[in-house]
Give the backbone structure.
Amino acid sequence: MADPSSDGRTRKTNWTALWLFVLIVGLIWISLPTVLMIVVGMPPTFVAWIIDRSYQKSATYCVAGMNFCGLFPYLMDLWMGVHSLKAASAIVTDVFALLVIYGAAAFGWMIYITIPPVVGTFLTVMAQRRVAQLRTLQRQIVEEWGESVAHSVTGQSN
């Protein structure tokens, strides 16, 4: 009997975990200041990923996008200036920089919370307008063709 742990899915997961580990170690070794900035700046994205149980991960994408937008200018300063741990530590300990980074993530949460109801309301208004247009068209057809048209559509007979 075959060992259940030796199936292809487990091997694929093990290889994925190994390559992810190699990637992280390589990034830390090559670019520790950048990794420090990402580790300190991106926890709101990680929290959104944990909290978001939906299949689409909409909250994660909203928060991650805005969180990265807040972090990116400081990463650019680090990359275009002195790429050192001292420079990264100066950015990470700057209260204004943290306010911008975490404020952008909070804005991502606000987008995630406010946009779906607005879109839902807009779609409801559009559907109600379409129903009103169809009722007007229906009245015009009944006036032109007579009441027998309305009864034949609903399945009722005279």
About this structure: The chain has a mean pLDDT of 87. DSSP finds seven helices and no strands in the chain.
